[in-house]
Amino acid sequence: MAGPPLEQGVGWGIVLGFGAFFAIVMSLLTLAQKRYLQEHQTSEMFMTAHRSVKTGLVASAVVSSWTWAATLLQSSSVAYKYGVSGPFWYASGATIQVLLFAILAVEVKRKAPNAHTFLEIVNARYGKATHIIFLIFGMLTNVIVTAMLLLGGSAVVNALTGVNTIACCFLLPLGVLVYTLFGGLKATFLTDYVHTSVIYIIILSFLFTVYASSDVIGSPGKMYDLLLDASIKNPVVDNEQGSYVTMASLQGIIFGIINIVGNFGTVFVDNAYWQRAIAARPSSTVKAYLIGGLSWFSIPFTLATTMGIAGVALVGAGVMEPPTDHEVSAGLVLPLAATALLGKAGAFAVMVLVFMAVTSAASAELIAVSSIYTYDIYRTYIHSGALGKQVIRQSHASVIFFGLLMGALATILNYIGVDLGYMYLLMGIISSPAVIPVAYTLVWKKQTAVAAVAGALLGLICGIIAWLVAAQKLFGEITLKSTGDNYPMLAGNLSSLIISGLVATIVSLIKPANFDFDITRQKLEILTDDEVVENAVHEDPMEKDPVRLTKAFNFAIISSVALTIILIIIWPLPMYGTRYVFSRPFFTFWVAISMIWAIIATIACTIYPVVESRRSITAVIVGIIRDIRGQRITHEKKTDGIDKSPSEIIEDKA
């Protein structure tokens, strides 16, 4: 890259200015919810949002927390390397985990409705020794995810503006720290919604620019011609006919397998997803994860099918310099292509896009780590009777500490040469050994503590051994380059997941347990300090109806498994097996699918939450108007004792 397309001032403005803006706005929204909606910041509200969040907002939060810097950057890089198969395998390989997690999300409501973290469930079922092992896996997963966020974000800001990478590592989480401290989990949901909306708007603008208004490309047909020319000049290794427009890509499918395995770890073992399940209304849980997963699919699929392959077309057209291998691995194809297409406007759009992804996902990680520290370390091993203000104080301290720690870790990784692409491929080796034991904890009463621990530890050990041995055998050395290759990473990822699952299953079957899930229902309790009792949210009893929850569980299994089979078998594998190379009409159809999917996802994640929360929004607006007029805000009581918001009072009087 010749030189940053934007001035340093723009970089500082986005990193500091946007960070300060969101910190102030979200802190004010937290105060508004307290004043006008009676949402007081108790310990339960801070960590679980009183388990009352509706479908649309949870779906938007799922999309936001799963949209990392890697989602935007790495997906575009694999599109540049492997063609159209890259975006598909990135999207499908990281969507099925969210869809399948819907099963665990509703199981939390059925079997541990008062849990604050998934590790509390592990502790209640197996005891402290097992709890400590999975506590380490959980924290490692959060560290890896946050490191990837900061590595990707700092690389883009540095490439586009020249702002110091180390400064970015520490400053990107700064605004997040502030509003997370003020508003807890609910504030992260609100920022997730805003960030998700902005991300979709920018993706749609790129989509219509590339395929409708660009002078260089301007239509799917022109893109197809440019990709054909590129495949003749620089054929893709291991792709059918060296083509960029085929799903018959060996490296693409290898990446897909690594992607599938790795992302199971960073969903099932990342407390951020469990928190969203815990915070959702029971009736909203399954729908939220299915809508969120299918909506998220459109982000890497549409963006990379637009900007990633546009990078190939622009290089072929002589509009863009070919990126180096390091730039591709660091995820810089997206900013390079956007700058080549739109100049400074494109670079600025990518800056905003990446900033939104990094900060919203970082807020989810911060509150996830905070809840683990508060409930699984502080209240379990340090002060078991802590309630209310003590819990919130510890939560605040852990948010600050983790934010600073991750800035330091990202700095170290930058210095030793570990980039986003390397961390993305590595994550499954570290986190996926815990996936099956954690899932069994909620869905299989026969798993024992010994089986859970043995599966996780042996899976990790075998995964690391397979990874390093494969690198040594294939390349004769163990270096960052050899261990970062697809084949050693594939060996390590598969070994970690498969061996842990086999060990956990076999050991449990040899001497099975017969766990009674009434223990997790009764042992885990909502904090009952005076603050929470005074401001308790009154739930509809139907929300916890066992029959309704069982129906939701059955629906989750059928729908998530069916969608998984479609996304990773029925859709891609026939196209791989037949070695089909896209025709011009089929490529146009493929682009149209990405476009339609993105538009529907935008509606689901930006308009649906507003419609669903219209009464609360009205309540805040009415409250602000009354304050401006100097009128007193009253909260009448319903006949069942539940407080009414100002908007409900108006509706009743009307």
UniProtKB/TrEMBL annotation:
One of its GO terms (cellular component) is plasma membrane. Pfam families: SSF. The keyword Membrane applies. It is a multi-pass membrane protein. The keyword Chaperone does not apply. It is found in: Membrane. Keywords: Membrane, Transmembrane, Transmembrane helix, Transport. GO terms for molecular function: spermidine transmembrane transporter activity; urea transmembrane transporter activity. Belongs to the sodium:solute symporter (SSF) (TC 2.A.21) family. This is Na+/solute symporter. It comes from Rhizophagus irregularis.
